[in-house]
């Protein structure tokens, strides 16, 4: 049986796909990803204040900033998605 496409008639509803709600785990991981940017900046600032003498050079080396960003960017979305409520199907 071939697939038939019927043209939309005036006054009929559009044949758009049904929108499903976004799952809580996806929402939580998205918020965790955004929070990772804020946490990364804060951790780098704290590291600079504690171990790299504050506002004077030397500043925090770029590899350390990269590792902090990688760790926060991976850990926070994962943890937020892991601990979010699961939808039973």
UniProtKB/TrEMBL annotation:
Protein name: Uncharacterized protein
Keywords in alphabetical order: Membrane, Transmembrane, Transmembrane helix
Region Disordered, annotated ranges: 1-20
Membrane-spanning parts: 28-52, 64-84
Superkingdom per UniProt: Bacteria
């Amino acid at each position: 049986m071939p697939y038939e496409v019927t043209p939309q008639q005036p006054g009929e509803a559009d044949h758009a796909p049904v929108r499903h709600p976004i799952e809580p785990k996806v929402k939580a991981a998205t918020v965790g990803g955004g929070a990772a940017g804020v946490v990364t900046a804060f951790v780098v600032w704290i590291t600079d204040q504690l171990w790299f003498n504050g506002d004077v050079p030397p500043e925090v080396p770029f590899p350390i900033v990269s590792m902090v960003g990688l760790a926060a960017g991976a850990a926070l979305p994962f943890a937020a998605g892991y601990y979010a409520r699961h939808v039973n199907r």
